[in-house]
Design brief:
Elements: H1 2-10, H2 28-39, H3 60-70, H4 77-87, H5 94-110, H6 113-123, E1 125-131, E2 137-140, H7 143-150, H8 154-163, E3 171-178
Antiparallel strand pairs: 1-2, 1-3
């Protein structure tokens, strides 16, 4: 980072830290952007306090390094089981539900239908839904498509797959594996 190099070159005495203004927490990003525009700080690589990566992209080599670092990182089955057990029977407050809903709506606006379909196809897993009343089973390419067919959320589908319980005391939902022939 440029600031680290400058600190090593000029020493800490060549720099100072000053409080420019006190403000309410909800005003911090607005104030930071205001001072960015006035002072145009030399060592600050972010141009927008609310979106630090705005206008910047990782290089291909950096993306590769990030990819390598993230491989193999995940939760063990034991950790997943403990988290699931901890969450069982708990629900979000109405305020939390509203905030989650607003965040999802904001993300929906940022992601095109084409991108959503590509993600769904790439990450989708085949599901088999067995109707215990009729004995009829159907395959779906993604959990989202199961959710649409059953009139619930994808998270609900995931929960019923994990628990092995019948959805609406009628439908058994099983995950078969990756879509696209990779079962």
């Amino acid at each position: 980072m440029a600031i680290c190099s400058a600190l090593l070159k000029y020493g800490y005495s060549g720099f100072s830290l000053e409080i420019l203004e006190y403000c309410k927490q909800e005003e911090t990003l607005e104030k930071e952007n205001y001072y960015f525009s006035i002072l145009q700080p030399e060592y600050n690589i972010s141009k927008d306090a609310s979106a630090p990566m705005l206008g910047r992209n990782h290089t291909d080599s950096t993306r590769e390094k990030i990819s390598i670092l993230r491989q193999g990182i995940g939760r063990t089955e034991e950790t997943k089981r403990r988290i699931s057990a901890y969450r069982e029977g708990k629900s979000h407050t109405e305020e939390t539900k509203r905030k989650i809903s607003e965040a999802k709506k904001a993300m929906e606006k940022l992601t095109s239908a084409e991108t959503k379909n590509k993600i769904s196809e790439a990450l989708g897993e085949l599901h088999l839904v067995l109707d215990k009343e009729t004995g009829v089973s159907n395959k779906y390419e993604t959990g989202k498509k199961v959710a649409e067919a059953l009139g619930c959320s994808p998270a609900t589908v995931t929960n019923y797959v994990k628990s092995g319980r019948l959805f609406k005391d009628r439908y058994l939902i099983n995950k078969l594996g990756r879509a696209g022939g990779k079962v």
